[in-house]
Amino acid sequence: MAELIAPGVFRFDGCIKAESYGTAVGETEGKGPLGDCFDVVEKDSHLGCDTWEQAESKLQLRAVDTALAKAGLRPEDIGVVCAGDLNNQCTASAYGLRGLGIPYLGLYGACSTMAEGILTAALMIESGAAERSAAATSSHFSTAERQFRSPLSYGGQRTPTAQRTCTAAGAVILSRKGKVSVAGGCIGKIADMGITDMTNMGSAMAPAAADTVERYLEATGTAPCDYDFIVTGDLGTVGSSLLAKLLEEKWSDLAERHRDCGVMIYAADSGDPFDSHCGGSGCGCGASVLCGHFLPMLESGEADNLLFIATGALMSPMMIQQGESIPSVAHLVHFRRS
After folding, report:
1. I want to staple 100 with a disulfide (CB 3.0 to 4.6 A). Which of 26, 75, 203, 249 is the partner?
2. Which residues pair with 312 in a beta bridge?
3. In the chain, what are the helix, strand and coil shares in percent, each to the nearest 5?
4. For the whole model, what pTM was predicted?
5. Contacts of 80 (CB under 8 A, 6+ apart)
6. pLDDT tens string 44-95
7. Measured between alpha carbons, how far is 304 from 243 in angstroms, rounded to an integer?
8. Residues 153-163, buried b or exposed e (16+ Cβ, 10 A)?
């Protein structure tokens, strides 16, 4: 049984594990420093489809199919899939997974969706509602740009704090088999520091990440030095520096353990060769780097203990146009090598 140790913070008994995982990314992500980590690299951003939304749906399906194939599983072996994306009505997830016949829970947590999905999927197994579950999410540069920013043909100048939405998807299958266990989790609280700039997501999300990390470390009586890595989803370079500043009074060594998937996927802190400005973003950013880079590190023994904090700006373009600020949330999953 899961043990509640503080409001929103709980630990598992170590029996829920990552049995398999899969990734699919676009050409730009495949050319980045983590390109060799991903299972599928799509050269065509349309994936042979007529629309960007159809392409993202296909990308997410590729990640799920890959995770199934690597474990020798069929869709009917999965009791529930917890999936979401950035599009209205979680279009990529619903349309992409509709042909699998797996019981489906659609989730929306913006770019925090992968951690939200993993926690939900783990709790489904823990409660006895499923023997095996899956979590999946995706994002696509072209669908996100069109929905949240400007038409693709607009060609406006991007601000220095902007991030590039990743064309990427990740999926993980949970069961009671595997070498990497889901040891615990923390459900994030909504944080809002009054940021209104839609091109500065890192600043909006950093306070949520700081709160979640602080709550989990204090509830478990641990410190950054107890973990190999503290991984955030897509704070980017600006958000990452803010996270360190927000927590430096309590844990001055956090920056040494911290890694950000958005910074890593485009090498935003090493010359930014893809002109991402502050790094990558999107649901698929953290999901693909987690499933393509960090979970394999845990499975191989290169790392033993890791916190994954997926950060999401719960932004509505309509509310921004009405003068509202940007609320954010960050959910945490504690992975440990069994």
Report:
1. 75
2. 329
3. 40, 25, 40
4. 0.96
5. 102, 103, 104, 105, 121, 124, 129, 130, 133, 134
6. 999 999 998 999 999 999 999 999 999 999 999 999 999 999 998 999 999 9
7. 23
8. eeeeeeeebbb
Beta pairing, strands 9-11 & 3-6: antiparallel
Specify the CATH number for the domain of residue 71: 3.40.47.40
Note the residue count of the chain: 338
Rounded to 5°, the CA angle 308-313-315 comes to: 160
Give residue 135's domain range.
3-175
Name the nearest CA neighbour of 262 among 234, 240, 296, 290. Answer: 234
* Same domain as 186, residue 293: yes
The answer on pLDDT for 246 being more than 80 is: yes
Strands 258-260 and 180-186, by their bridges, are unpaired
CA distance 175 to 133: 7
In this structure, are 39 and 80 located in the same domain?
Answer: yes
Q: How far does Cα 127 stand from its chain's mean position?
A: 24
